[in-house]
Amino acid sequence: MTSRRVMPAEWAPQSAVMLTWPHPGTDWAAVLDQVEPVFIAIAEAVLRFEHLLISCEHVVRVQELEQTLNRFAREQGLPGRAVCVPAPANDTWARDHGPLAVQTDDGLTLLDFRFNAWGGKFPWEKDDALNRHLANAGAFGTTPLEAVDFILEGGSVESDGEGTLLTTSECLLTPTRNPAHDRAAIEQLLFDQLGADRVLWLNHGFLAGDDTDSHVDTLARFCSPDRICYVACDNPEDEHYGALSAMAEELREFRQRDGSPYQLTALPLPDPIHDDEGTRLPATYANFLIINGALLLPIYGAPQDEDAISIMADLFPDREIVPINCRALVLQHGSLHCVTMQIPEGVVAS
Question: Is 5-344 CATH 3.75.10.10?
Fold first, then answer.
């Protein structure tokens, strides 16, 4: 008899947050002095609540991080400790190359889906092998790591912890990921591997400058089994207005298991942020990370930051809202949730 599976919601108890540290061999090379402070801020915030699992290709940097962050945690009397592992990586997007967890009748299992840099857009071979490298180094303790021969990024699926997944058709149906699978086959795989019994497909919504083919974690997120927050655009002159309005209508049409509509909360769209070439960057408040006792919220030095903080405080009254300026992260077209992956309780021990 097949063991029943369920993918935990992000608010389920965690043992650690995984970070893949930027190094000079990544596309961050030219702006390491800008992006490393963001990673440090995320790391120090996490240590206030739980452990860190950090990997970096540069052995000396890994050793420095372990010493510095653990000294910080000890001096501050924090509960978290940093477990640091030298491991090769092409980039830093732990959300997408990190393992996805499922709870089974036999205990927790980490799933190692394949990663091909969002349909072959960038080099990916080191990132695709990273989870196995970490497992071989003992980073996941005795929790099994199960390989799955299917391209799936963590940022492309949201779980309510009760068997419902939220995703986008633009991402999962992109032929550069799993060309042999149609929508029905992909749904079946999500049922089999992640234990889902419902998939809510968003067919609209995008952010300019996004490399991921509209990952759901940039657009709409479960806040609880009955509430979804989503990025909204109220400016008809903005290029996002049509697609995000259509996405909002889709969300209004979604139903919970009992047939009732979801409670919906709109998040503001930050004022446009552009790189030096004039390309608009995908800044979004939906790219937050829920951890034990807190919510890490990306902010951008935009006028909408305070509204986003206030909205999140209302949505998560039992968690501390920790704003982190992630303007440097969007230079490479991602944000806070994109560079982190939560690891469930009982996996990582300091």
Answer: yes
